[in-house]
Amino acid sequence: MHYKVVIVGGGSGGISVAARLLREARWLSGQVAIVDPATKHYYQPLWTLVGGGAVAREVTEREEASVIPEGAVWIQEAVKEFKPEENQVVTSSEKWISYDYLVVAAGIQIDWDKIKGLRESIGKDGVCSNYSYDYVNSTWESLRNFKGGNAIFTAPNTPIKCGGAPQKIMYLADDYLRKSKVRDKSNVMFVSGGTVIFGVKKYADSLNKVIARKEIETRFKHNLVEIRGKEKVAVFEDLDSKQRVEIRYEMIHVVPPMSAPDFIKTSPLANADGWVDVDKFTLQHNRFANVFGIGDCTSLPTSKTGAAIRKQAPVVVANLLSMLHTQPVVKQYNGYTSCPLVTGYGSLILAEFDYSNTPDESFPVDQGKERRSMYLLKKDLLPVIYWDGMLKGLM
Ligand code: FAD
Mind listing the domains of the chain with CATH numbers? Predict the structure, then answer.
Protein backbone atom coordinates (compact mmCIF):
# COMPACT_ATOMS: atom_id res chain seq x y z
CA MET A 1 0.00 0.00 0.00
CA HIS A 2 1.54 3.32 -1.03
CA TYR A 3 0.30 6.92 -0.79
CA LYS A 4 1.95 10.18 -1.70
CA VAL A 5 0.91 11.64 1.66
CA VAL A 6 0.04 9.68 4.79
CA ILE A 7 -1.55 11.54 7.71
CA VAL A 8 -1.51 9.80 11.08
CA GLY A 9 -4.47 11.04 13.14
CA GLY A 10 -7.78 12.40 11.87
CA GLY A 11 -8.48 14.88 14.66
CA SER A 12 -8.35 18.69 14.38
CA GLY A 13 -4.86 18.78 12.86
CA GLY A 14 -5.06 15.77 10.56
CA ILE A 15 -8.39 16.70 8.99
CA SER A 16 -7.44 20.39 8.62
CA VAL A 17 -4.28 19.44 6.74
CA ALA A 18 -5.98 16.82 4.56
CA ALA A 19 -8.83 19.13 3.59
CA ARG A 20 -6.58 22.08 2.79
CA LEU A 21 -4.10 19.94 0.88
CA LEU A 22 -6.80 18.39 -1.29
CA ARG A 23 -8.41 21.79 -1.86
CA GLU A 24 -5.13 23.34 -3.00
CA ALA A 25 -3.87 20.31 -4.96
CA ARG A 26 -6.83 18.41 -6.38
CA TRP A 27 -4.45 16.22 -8.34
CA LEU A 28 -3.58 14.52 -5.03
CA SER A 29 -7.07 13.01 -4.87
CA GLY A 30 -6.81 9.30 -3.96
CA GLN A 31 -3.17 9.73 -2.96
CA VAL A 32 -3.74 11.10 0.54
CA ALA A 33 -4.42 8.57 3.31
CA ILE A 34 -5.67 9.38 6.82
CA VAL A 35 -4.94 6.63 9.33
CA ASP A 36 -7.11 6.84 12.46
CA PRO A 37 -9.05 4.13 14.33
CA ALA A 38 -11.63 6.55 15.79
CA THR A 39 -15.28 6.23 14.78
CA LYS A 40 -16.11 9.71 16.12
CA HIS A 41 -14.63 13.19 15.76
CA TYR A 42 -14.99 15.67 18.64
CA TYR A 43 -15.02 19.43 18.91
CA GLN A 44 -13.29 19.35 22.30
CA PRO A 45 -13.22 23.13 23.02
CA LEU A 46 -16.96 23.03 23.79
CA TRP A 47 -16.45 20.46 26.55
CA THR A 48 -15.86 23.34 28.98
CA LEU A 49 -19.38 24.57 28.33
CA VAL A 50 -20.76 21.00 28.38
CA GLY A 51 -19.23 20.51 31.85
CA GLY A 52 -20.84 23.79 32.88
CA GLY A 53 -24.24 22.66 31.63
CA ALA A 54 -24.45 25.38 28.94
CA VAL A 55 -24.18 23.09 25.88
CA ALA A 56 -25.34 19.50 25.24
CA ARG A 57 -22.53 16.96 24.91
CA GLU A 58 -23.98 15.54 21.70
CA VAL A 59 -23.37 18.70 19.65
CA THR A 60 -19.61 18.18 20.06
CA GLU A 61 -19.59 14.75 18.40
CA ARG A 62 -19.79 13.80 14.73
CA GLU A 63 -19.06 10.63 12.79
CA GLU A 64 -15.40 10.50 11.78
CA ALA A 65 -16.58 9.39 8.31
CA SER A 66 -18.43 12.70 7.92
CA VAL A 67 -15.27 14.81 8.33
CA ILE A 68 -12.98 12.83 6.01
CA PRO A 69 -12.51 15.16 3.01
CA GLU A 70 -13.38 14.05 -0.49
CA GLY A 71 -10.31 12.61 -2.17
CA ALA A 72 -8.79 11.27 1.05
CA VAL A 73 -8.64 7.55 1.78
CA TRP A 74 -9.50 6.69 5.38
CA ILE A 75 -7.67 3.68 6.82
CA GLN A 76 -9.52 2.99 10.04
CA GLU A 77 -6.68 1.56 12.08
CA ALA A 78 -4.21 2.65 14.73
CA VAL A 79 -0.59 3.16 13.76
CA LYS A 80 1.66 1.22 16.12
CA GLU A 81 5.07 1.93 14.65
CA PHE A 82 6.91 4.51 12.56
CA LYS A 83 9.68 3.38 10.20
CA PRO A 84 10.91 6.74 8.92
CA GLU A 85 14.14 5.33 7.48
CA GLU A 86 11.99 3.15 5.21
CA ASN A 87 9.19 5.73 4.72
CA GLN A 88 6.61 3.40 6.19
CA VAL A 89 4.14 3.16 9.05
CA VAL A 90 2.87 -0.10 10.50
CA THR A 91 -0.72 -0.44 11.73
CA SER A 92 -2.16 -2.53 14.56
CA SER A 93 -3.20 -5.23 12.06
CA GLU A 94 0.35 -5.31 10.63
CA LYS A 95 -0.45 -3.34 7.48
CA TRP A 96 2.67 -1.67 6.15
CA ILE A 97 1.82 1.65 4.50
CA SER A 98 4.53 3.48 2.58
CA TYR A 99 4.58 7.19 1.79
CA ASP A 100 6.48 9.96 0.09
CA TYR A 101 5.46 12.43 2.81
CA LEU A 102 4.19 11.85 6.33
CA VAL A 103 2.19 14.20 8.58
CA VAL A 104 1.90 13.21 12.24
CA ALA A 105 -1.22 14.57 13.95
CA ALA A 106 -1.99 12.01 16.66
CA GLY A 107 -2.86 14.40 19.52
CA ILE A 108 -1.84 14.13 23.17
CA GLN A 109 -2.18 11.15 25.51
CA ILE A 110 -4.11 11.55 28.74
CA ASP A 111 -2.36 9.56 31.46
CA TRP A 112 -5.38 8.74 33.64
CA ASP A 113 -3.48 5.90 35.34
CA LYS A 114 -0.72 8.16 36.64
CA ILE A 115 -3.06 9.30 39.42
CA LYS A 116 -3.63 6.49 41.88
CA GLY A 117 -7.32 5.69 42.35
CA LEU A 118 -8.52 7.98 39.56
CA ARG A 119 -9.71 5.24 37.17
CA GLU A 120 -11.82 3.72 39.94
CA SER A 121 -13.40 6.99 41.02
CA ILE A 122 -13.76 9.14 37.87
CA GLY A 123 -17.32 9.87 36.81
CA LYS A 124 -18.92 9.23 40.18
CA ASP A 125 -19.26 10.61 43.73
CA GLY A 126 -18.13 14.11 42.83
CA VAL A 127 -15.01 13.11 40.86
CA CYS A 128 -15.27 14.51 37.35
CA SER A 129 -13.31 15.72 34.33
CA ASN A 130 -14.03 17.70 31.18
CA TYR A 131 -11.10 15.97 29.46
CA SER A 132 -13.11 13.10 28.00
CA TYR A 133 -16.41 12.81 26.16
CA ASP A 134 -17.20 9.87 28.45
CA TYR A 135 -16.85 11.86 31.67
CA VAL A 136 -17.74 15.43 30.69
CA ASN A 137 -21.38 15.05 31.78
CA SER A 138 -20.18 14.04 35.23
CA THR A 139 -18.87 17.58 35.74
CA TRP A 140 -22.31 19.10 35.33
CA GLU A 141 -23.81 16.33 37.45
CA SER A 142 -21.25 16.94 40.23
CA LEU A 143 -21.99 20.66 40.15
CA ARG A 144 -25.73 20.16 40.39
CA ASN A 145 -25.34 17.72 43.27
CA PHE A 146 -22.89 19.95 45.15
CA LYS A 147 -24.43 21.31 48.34
CA GLY A 148 -21.38 22.93 49.95
CA GLY A 149 -17.87 22.10 51.16
CA ASN A 150 -14.66 21.99 49.14
CA ALA A 151 -14.89 22.17 45.34
CA ILE A 152 -11.38 21.49 44.04
CA PHE A 153 -10.14 22.16 40.50
CA THR A 154 -6.76 20.63 39.64
CA ALA A 155 -4.11 21.21 36.98
CA PRO A 156 -1.05 18.99 36.49
CA ASN A 157 2.56 20.12 36.03
CA THR A 158 2.85 18.48 32.57
CA PRO A 159 2.00 20.06 29.23
CA ILE A 160 -1.75 19.69 28.60
CA LYS A 161 -4.13 20.54 25.80
CA CYS A 162 -5.75 23.92 26.35
CA GLY A 163 -3.78 25.26 29.29
CA GLY A 164 -6.72 27.45 30.36
CA ALA A 165 -9.34 24.69 30.54
CA PRO A 166 -8.58 23.63 34.16
CA GLN A 167 -9.57 27.10 35.40
CA LYS A 168 -12.37 27.93 32.94
CA ILE A 169 -14.65 25.27 34.41
CA MET A 170 -13.86 26.60 37.88
CA TYR A 171 -15.14 30.07 36.99
CA LEU A 172 -18.32 28.57 35.55
CA ALA A 173 -18.70 26.48 38.71
CA ASP A 174 -18.30 29.55 40.91
CA ASP A 175 -20.93 31.38 38.84
CA TYR A 176 -23.32 28.42 39.04
CA LEU A 177 -22.83 28.02 42.81
CA ARG A 178 -23.58 31.71 43.32
CA LYS A 179 -26.74 31.47 41.21
CA SER A 180 -27.88 28.38 43.10
CA LYS A 181 -27.12 30.05 46.45
CA VAL A 182 -24.59 27.52 47.75
CA ARG A 183 -21.46 29.59 47.16
CA ASP A 184 -21.45 30.95 50.74
CA LYS A 185 -21.27 27.36 52.04
CA SER A 186 -18.46 26.39 49.68
CA ASN A 187 -14.74 26.79 49.32
CA VAL A 188 -13.62 26.89 45.68
CA MET A 189 -9.97 25.92 45.32
CA PHE A 190 -7.55 25.91 42.38
CA VAL A 191 -4.78 23.43 43.21
CA SER A 192 -2.20 23.39 40.46
CA GLY A 193 1.16 21.78 39.75
CA GLY A 194 2.07 24.94 37.85
CA THR A 195 3.62 28.09 39.27
CA VAL A 196 1.35 30.84 37.93
CA ILE A 197 -2.28 31.28 36.91
CA PHE A 198 -1.39 32.00 33.25
CA GLY A 199 1.85 32.35 31.32
CA VAL A 200 1.11 35.70 29.63
CA LYS A 201 1.25 38.68 31.99
CA LYS A 202 -1.54 40.71 30.41
CA TYR A 203 -4.08 37.90 30.86
CA ALA A 204 -2.63 36.71 34.18
CA ASP A 205 -3.26 40.21 35.59
CA SER A 206 -6.90 40.02 34.50
CA LEU A 207 -7.33 36.47 35.82
CA ASN A 208 -5.85 37.34 39.19
CA LYS A 209 -8.55 40.02 39.53
CA VAL A 210 -11.22 37.44 38.61
CA ILE A 211 -9.85 35.09 41.26
CA ALA A 212 -9.85 37.81 43.92
CA ARG A 213 -13.39 38.89 43.02
CA LYS A 214 -14.65 35.31 43.11
CA GLU A 215 -12.80 34.61 46.40
CA ILE A 216 -11.12 31.51 45.02
CA GLU A 217 -8.30 29.95 47.06
CA THR A 218 -5.21 29.09 45.00
CA ARG A 219 -2.35 26.70 45.72
CA PHE A 220 0.45 26.34 43.21
CA LYS A 221 3.22 23.72 42.91
CA HIS A 222 0.80 21.08 44.21
CA ASN A 223 0.37 18.06 41.97
CA LEU A 224 -2.54 15.66 42.37
CA VAL A 225 -1.14 12.14 42.92
CA GLU A 226 -4.02 10.15 44.42
CA ILE A 227 -7.79 10.12 44.83
CA ARG A 228 -9.26 8.12 47.69
CA GLY A 229 -12.82 8.04 46.35
CA LYS A 230 -14.52 6.32 49.30
CA GLU A 231 -13.11 8.84 51.81
CA LYS A 232 -13.45 11.78 49.38
CA VAL A 233 -9.81 12.72 49.94
CA ALA A 234 -7.44 14.08 47.30
CA VAL A 235 -3.71 13.68 47.89
CA PHE A 236 -1.30 16.24 46.43
CA GLU A 237 2.46 16.36 46.34
CA ASP A 238 3.94 19.69 47.37
CA LEU A 239 6.56 20.03 44.64
CA ASP A 240 8.90 22.08 46.85
CA SER A 241 8.89 20.10 50.10
CA LYS A 242 7.91 16.74 48.47
CA GLN A 243 5.43 16.36 51.36
CA ARG A 244 1.99 14.82 50.79
CA VAL A 245 -0.95 17.15 51.40
CA GLU A 246 -4.45 15.72 51.86
CA ILE A 247 -7.54 17.78 51.11
CA ARG A 248 -11.11 16.60 51.59
CA TYR A 249 -13.49 17.37 48.76
CA GLU A 250 -17.19 17.30 48.02
CA MET A 251 -16.40 17.65 44.33
CA ILE A 252 -13.13 17.56 42.43
CA HIS A 253 -12.58 18.39 38.75
CA VAL A 254 -9.45 16.53 37.67
CA VAL A 255 -7.15 17.43 34.81
CA PRO A 256 -4.82 14.42 34.60
CA PRO A 257 -1.18 14.57 33.53
CA MET A 258 -0.62 14.27 29.79
CA SER A 259 2.26 13.28 27.52
CA ALA A 260 3.07 12.37 23.94
CA PRO A 261 1.29 9.19 22.78
CA ASP A 262 3.35 6.10 23.70
CA PHE A 263 3.76 4.95 20.08
CA ILE A 264 5.39 8.31 19.30
CA LYS A 265 7.53 8.39 22.45
CA THR A 266 9.17 5.11 21.51
CA SER A 267 9.65 6.00 17.83
CA PRO A 268 12.59 7.54 15.94
CA LEU A 269 10.41 10.63 15.39
CA ALA A 270 10.47 11.63 19.07
CA ASN A 271 12.64 14.20 20.80
CA ALA A 272 14.02 13.52 24.28
CA ASP A 273 10.66 14.38 25.86
CA GLY A 274 8.71 12.10 23.50
CA TRP A 275 7.11 14.73 21.23
CA VAL A 276 7.38 14.70 17.41
CA ASP A 277 10.58 16.63 16.94
CA VAL A 278 9.74 19.44 14.49
CA ASP A 279 11.25 22.79 13.56
CA LYS A 280 9.21 25.36 15.47
CA PHE A 281 8.80 27.62 12.43
CA THR A 282 8.44 25.30 9.41
CA LEU A 283 6.89 22.31 11.26
CA GLN A 284 9.20 20.03 9.29
CA HIS A 285 10.81 17.19 11.22
CA ASN A 286 14.30 18.03 12.45
CA ARG A 287 15.84 14.78 11.13
CA PHE A 288 13.46 13.34 8.51
CA ALA A 289 12.84 16.01 5.87
CA ASN A 290 9.76 14.31 4.38
CA VAL A 291 7.96 14.26 7.75
CA PHE A 292 5.85 17.07 9.25
CA GLY A 293 4.09 17.35 12.58
CA ILE A 294 1.06 19.36 13.65
CA GLY A 295 -0.88 19.95 16.84
CA ASP A 296 -0.77 18.49 20.32
CA CYS A 297 1.70 15.64 19.59
CA THR A 298 4.50 17.97 18.49
CA SER A 299 7.46 19.59 20.22
CA LEU A 300 6.17 23.09 19.30
CA PRO A 301 6.84 25.30 22.35
CA THR A 302 3.39 26.89 22.42
CA SER A 303 0.13 26.23 24.21
CA LYS A 304 -1.55 23.18 22.64
CA THR A 305 -4.91 24.29 21.20
CA GLY A 306 -7.16 23.90 18.20
CA ALA A 307 -6.69 27.62 17.57
CA ALA A 308 -2.94 27.02 17.21
CA ILE A 309 -3.69 24.28 14.68
CA ARG A 310 -5.77 26.73 12.62
CA LYS A 311 -2.52 28.67 12.05
CA GLN A 312 -0.28 25.61 11.77
CA ALA A 313 -2.25 23.81 9.05
CA PRO A 314 -1.64 26.40 6.29
CA VAL A 315 2.10 26.27 7.11
CA VAL A 316 2.27 22.47 6.90
CA VAL A 317 0.31 22.46 3.64
CA ALA A 318 2.34 25.25 2.00
CA ASN A 319 5.63 23.58 2.97
CA LEU A 320 4.43 20.15 1.90
CA LEU A 321 3.36 21.54 -1.48
CA SER A 322 6.74 23.28 -1.84
CA MET A 323 8.47 19.95 -1.30
CA LEU A 324 6.16 18.22 -3.76
CA HIS A 325 7.28 20.84 -6.31
CA THR A 326 10.93 20.49 -5.22
CA GLN A 327 10.92 24.04 -3.88
CA PRO A 328 12.45 25.13 -0.55
CA VAL A 329 10.33 25.07 2.59
CA VAL A 330 9.74 28.74 3.46
CA LYS A 331 6.38 29.24 5.18
CA GLN A 332 6.69 29.90 8.92
CA TYR A 333 4.46 29.60 11.98
CA ASN A 334 4.92 32.25 14.70
CA GLY A 335 3.63 30.19 17.62
CA TYR A 336 0.17 31.78 17.56
CA THR A 337 -2.25 30.18 19.98
CA SER A 338 -5.43 31.27 21.64
CA CYS A 339 -7.23 30.48 24.84
CA PRO A 340 -10.80 31.66 25.26
CA LEU A 341 -10.82 32.05 29.05
CA VAL A 342 -14.44 31.67 30.08
CA THR A 343 -14.88 33.57 33.37
CA GLY A 344 -18.60 32.94 33.86
CA TYR A 345 -21.85 32.30 31.97
CA GLY A 346 -21.66 35.16 29.49
CA SER A 347 -18.13 36.48 30.07
CA LEU A 348 -14.79 35.64 28.51
CA ILE A 349 -11.22 36.94 28.19
CA LEU A 350 -9.90 36.05 24.74
CA ALA A 351 -6.17 35.41 25.18
CA GLU A 352 -4.20 35.27 21.91
CA PHE A 353 -0.40 35.21 21.87
CA ASP A 354 2.70 33.93 20.08
CA TYR A 355 5.99 32.15 20.90
CA SER A 356 7.31 35.18 22.77
CA ASN A 357 4.16 35.31 24.95
CA THR A 358 3.35 38.66 23.32
CA PRO A 359 -0.39 39.26 22.79
CA ASP A 360 -1.29 38.73 19.10
CA GLU A 361 -4.92 39.82 19.19
CA SER A 362 -7.57 39.66 16.46
CA PHE A 363 -10.00 42.37 17.60
CA PRO A 364 -9.57 46.16 17.96
CA VAL A 365 -10.65 46.08 21.63
CA ASP A 366 -8.83 45.33 24.88
CA GLN A 367 -9.01 41.53 24.95
CA GLY A 368 -7.73 41.48 28.53
CA LYS A 369 -11.25 42.52 29.60
CA GLU A 370 -14.09 40.09 30.29
CA ARG A 371 -16.60 40.44 27.48
CA ARG A 372 -19.99 38.97 26.63
CA SER A 373 -19.28 39.27 22.90
CA MET A 374 -16.26 36.97 23.25
CA TYR A 375 -18.32 34.41 25.18
CA LEU A 376 -20.83 34.34 22.33
CA LEU A 377 -17.95 34.01 19.86
CA LYS A 378 -16.75 30.89 21.68
CA LYS A 379 -20.16 29.34 22.23
CA ASP A 380 -21.86 30.05 18.91
CA LEU A 381 -19.37 31.16 16.25
CA LEU A 382 -16.14 29.22 16.82
CA PRO A 383 -17.89 25.81 16.48
CA VAL A 384 -19.18 26.88 13.04
CA ILE A 385 -15.72 28.14 12.06
CA TYR A 386 -14.36 24.74 13.13
CA TRP A 387 -16.80 22.39 11.37
CA ASP A 388 -17.44 24.48 8.26
CA GLY A 389 -14.15 26.35 7.94
CA MET A 390 -11.14 24.59 9.46
CA LEU A 391 -12.22 21.03 8.75
CA LYS A 392 -13.07 22.00 5.17
CA GLY A 393 -9.61 23.49 4.64
CA LEU A 394 -11.05 26.99 4.27
CA MET A 395 -9.60 28.73 7.35
P1 FAD B 1 -6.91 15.53 18.35
O2 FAD B 1 -7.93 16.47 17.78
O3 FAD B 1 -7.11 15.09 19.76
O4 FAD B 1 -6.84 14.28 17.37
C5 FAD B 1 -5.91 13.24 17.52
C6 FAD B 1 -6.37 12.09 16.63
O7 FAD B 1 -5.31 11.13 16.56
C8 FAD B 1 -7.59 11.38 17.19
O9 FAD B 1 -8.61 11.32 16.21
C10 FAD B 1 -7.07 10.00 17.56
O11 FAD B 1 -8.03 8.98 17.36
C12 FAD B 1 -5.88 9.85 16.60
N13 FAD B 1 -4.90 8.88 17.05
C14 FAD B 1 -4.41 8.70 18.31
N15 FAD B 1 -3.55 7.67 18.33
C16 FAD B 1 -3.48 7.20 17.06
C17 FAD B 1 -2.76 6.13 16.46
N18 FAD B 1 -1.97 5.32 17.17
N19 FAD B 1 -2.92 5.93 15.13
C20 FAD B 1 -3.72 6.72 14.39
N21 FAD B 1 -4.44 7.74 14.92
C22 FAD B 1 -4.32 7.97 16.24
N23 FAD B 1 -8.61 24.34 21.92
C24 FAD B 1 -8.92 25.61 21.55
O25 FAD B 1 -8.43 26.08 20.53
N26 FAD B 1 -9.76 26.38 22.30
C27 FAD B 1 -10.36 25.92 23.41
O28 FAD B 1 -11.14 26.62 24.05
C29 FAD B 1 -10.07 24.58 23.83
N30 FAD B 1 -10.64 24.06 24.93
C31 FAD B 1 -10.44 22.74 25.25
C32 FAD B 1 -11.11 22.22 26.34
C33 FAD B 1 -10.97 20.87 26.66
C34 FAD B 1 -11.69 20.32 27.86
C35 FAD B 1 -10.16 20.03 25.85
C36 FAD B 1 -10.05 18.56 26.15
C37 FAD B 1 -9.48 20.55 24.76
C38 FAD B 1 -9.60 21.92 24.46
N39 FAD B 1 -8.92 22.50 23.38
C40 FAD B 1 -9.17 23.81 23.03
C41 FAD B 1 -7.79 21.78 22.73
C42 FAD B 1 -8.09 21.20 21.36
O43 FAD B 1 -9.26 20.44 21.36
C44 FAD B 1 -6.89 20.35 20.94
O45 FAD B 1 -5.71 21.12 21.07
C46 FAD B 1 -7.00 19.87 19.50
O47 FAD B 1 -8.13 19.07 19.31
C48 FAD B 1 -5.74 19.08 19.12
O49 FAD B 1 -5.83 18.57 17.83
P50 FAD B 1 -4.91 17.34 17.39
O51 FAD B 1 -5.23 17.08 15.96
O52 FAD B 1 -3.52 17.58 17.77
O53 FAD B 1 -5.43 16.15 18.30
Answer: 2-108+260-335+387-392 (3.50.50.60), 112-258 (3.50.50.60)
Asked whether residue 395 carries a pLDDT value surpassing 90, the answer given is no
How far is residue 9's CA from residue 91's CA, in Å, rounded to a whole number? 12
Residue 295, ligand 1, Cβ within 6 A? yes
Return the percent helix, strand and coil in the chain, to nearest 5. 30, 30, 40
- From the alpha carbon of 306, which atom of ligand 1 is closest? 25
298 CA to middle of ligand 1, Å?
12
pLDDT recorded at residue 350: 98
CA dihedral 4, 9, 10, 15 (to 10 degrees): -60
Rounded-to-integer distance, Cα 19 and Cα 368, Å: 34
Question: What is the per-residue pLDDT across 31-73, written as a single tens digit (0 to 9) for each?
Answer: 999 999 999 999 999 999 999 999 999 999 999 999 999 999 9
- Is residue 166 in contact with ligand 1, taking CB distance under 6 Å? no
Active site residue 339: yes
Ligand 1 atom with the shortest distance to the CA of 165 = 32
Asked about 128 being catalytic, the answer comes back as: no
> Computed over its alpha carbons, how large is the radius of gyration of the chain?
21
